[in-house]
Amino acid sequence: MHVDRYERYWMWAAIGMLVLFTGAIVITAVTGAAHPPSHTEVIDPETLTVAGEFATPGVTTHEDGRVTVSLRAEFYVFRPEHVRVPAGVPVTFRITSPDVLHGFQIVGTNVNLTVAPGYVSQATTTFDTPGEYLVVCNEYCGLGHHLMQGAIVVEPGR
Amino acid sequence: MTAAARLVLANVWVAVVAFALGALMAVMQALARAGIELPFGTARLYYLSVTAHGVLEALVFTTFFIMALGYLVTETTLGRIAGMQWAWAGFWIALVGTLMTTLAILSGTSTVLYTFYPPLEAHPTFYVGATLLIIGSWLWSAVMIGSFRAWRAGHPGERVPLALHGMLATVAVWILATAGLAVEVLVFILPWSFGLVDRIDPIVARTYFWWFGHPLTYFWLLPAYVLWYTVIPKVAGGKLFSDGLTRVVFVQFILFSTPVGLHHQFSDPGIAGGWKLLHTFTTYAIMFPSLVTAFTVIASLENAGRARGGTGLFGWLRVLPWRDPFFAGVALSMVTFALGGFGGAINAAYAMNAMVHNTAWIQGHFHLTVGTAVALTFMGSTYWMLPRLTGRAIAFPRLATMQPYLWFVGMQCFSIPSHIAGLMGMPRRVYTGEFQGVEAAQAWIPLVNLSAVGGVILFVSAMCYVGVVVGSMLVSPVTAREPFEYAEAMPSSTPASPLWDRFGLWTAVAVLLIALAYGPPLYHLHTMTRFPSQGFSPF
Is the CA virtual torsion B445, B362, A114, A32 positive or negative? Predict the structure, then answer.
């Protein structure tokens, strides 16, 4: 099959562009640990409000300064609704749902998780800038979907 | 009117009615989001209308219009649709399914959006109706394949007509796509919906849904490409740049449309990152045939422009038939698809996706792609198809000429602010973006208002389209009927190897690719300890 010279140039340019894109993705994934959240922990959605980590969700500060925040996303609220964390240290968010799918998106950051019953979603981030961050649910979950709202208050580092 | 024309028009009628109802749902959302007080402005009706808009436009309008195009191409390239009774059976089954699902949505018992992610639980009628729509489309697929095989038996060794080649690729993509949906609905959702089992795993269901959900977009796009490649050069007065490469492009869609779906689940728990990275690569691979399409189709249009006497580097653009609503619709679709395609490259980017996942960016993205590149091409093709089927002239020709431009302007006005608001963090599909007036949410308001203006312009354009179609079908006088003609290839275009016409072979390779891309993550999901969930109907 004859392929026109200019079309051949174009095809090589297209391949070059796609290699560039995928190359950038692989390099940032390997060197910068830029991965999507892919935690594979499971949990029973029917008992998680009774006992354990998600029965009393909240902030835990570890000895080395790292912070873990456990949350529940449920019909139409994040628990806890308000979270205080320090700036400049790695904060790991762990979140699950006792009912339907929800989203957990911290506006102004790249923390953006699907929250599913039966699974624990997890993401770690470091807040450099103190202030109040809005948390929204971005997966339709019922008629109160737009009412789900949380706040992360990032306090200046100690 | 011939028997084939009646079949095509029946499918077009359902598509256009679904489109009109879906458009009405959309303008209500636009006005509600802009904060305009409406008597129906409740959260319940808002989410109901989002569900109805998604199902009617993305599933009903597209599927019926594509079935119409498939029959039209079969009849005009092969001269015969084999198994007309099965084609009509498919039509009626799909129509009954559509009515069941639509009634389930409008009754307020199935506000689960068009993605119907479990454990959100709709009324069983919703799932049964959707299943019938798909079964009807399978009968369409069978009639398409049967017609081709009947023709092949009498024409051994002949090249498949190019337009039909593209439609058969569409059929192959559809069968591969709906296999995933069939597993989700028949194995998991229907038994759960009928109470035979109590629980369902949301991540397993989502994985099968997106096995279907991404090739679904190529099921929409491929028929539009068929029109871009094989009809538009003719409408513009030119020739197709390359017949051989076009066949290679269509086959690439069969191969790479399906093993890509995990890029919709980058944010999901339960699926390891390595599989998401693999699907990132295949998603970038599927961009290649679209990039080739950009060259081939534009080169064909340049050929047309020069044949019309256009000279110079860009002079050929000016002389193209910009007042022909089919041509204008397709040209504006191409511009829009270029923007949408680059947005898609961002959506597919493994880690960067977190910046846009489920934000307003996504609704901006797919309104450029399916909402314009596909829908505006289909609308334009209606103006080409109807007079040739019925012998009636296009009614309200000025309205028809204006309609694609209105759609283009309305869509940019809707989509660009949606992209920006999404980057600023605004979630999609929310009844209100107020969030108690917090500062971050305040910044979204002017963008939402601009989107609403776009929504109203789009609605006006949609009503122009519906008016022209209804007028052309019912009131226009019967005049001379022009023939359906497809573009010839340029003399410099040499044929591709007959290998590229072997649909069974390429579909088998595609099945292998799907097994490689989906086998391990699905095996892992199915064998790990899981806690499936009971159903909820919070609407």
Answer: negative
Q: What is the mean pLDDT of residues B209-230?
A: 97
User: What domains can be seen in chain B, in order of their start residue?
Assistant: 3-431+448-527 (1.20.210.10)
Question: Is B419 labeled as catalytic in the residue annotation?
Answer: no
Name which of A31, A145, A153 to mutate to probe chain B: the one with the most chain B Cβ atoms within 10 A of its Cβ. Answer: A145
- Give residue B35's pLDDT: 77
Domain span holding position A4:
1-35
Same domain assignment for residues A86 and A115:
yes
- Calculate mean pLDDT across residues B51-77: 97
If one counts the domains in chain A, the total is 2
Residue with tokens 């619709």: B329
Q: What is the ipTM of this complex?
A: 0.95
Question: A60 and A25: one domain?
Answer: no
Q: Do A112 and B358 touch (CB under 8 A)?
A: yes
Residue A9 sits in the same domain as residue A25: yes
Q: How many CB pairs under 8 A join A and B?
A: 222
C-alpha separations of B346 from B198, B284, B423 in Å? 39, 10, 12
My answer on whether A97 and A138 are in the same domain is yes
Please pick, among B33, B53, B214, B279, the residue that the annotation labels catalytic.
B214
Cβ contact, residue pair B292, A14, below 8 Å? yes
Å between B309 CA and nearest CA of chain A: 22
Which of B430, B438, B495 comes nearest A145 by C-beta?
B430
Span B479-489, mean pLDDT? 91
User: Which pTM was predicted?
Assistant: 0.96
| Annotated catalytic residue within B53, B263, B357, B367 | B367
Q: How far is residue B132 from each of residues B94, B95, B136, B193, B508, measured CA to CA in Å?
A: 6, 8, 6, 16, 26
β partners of residue B240: B489
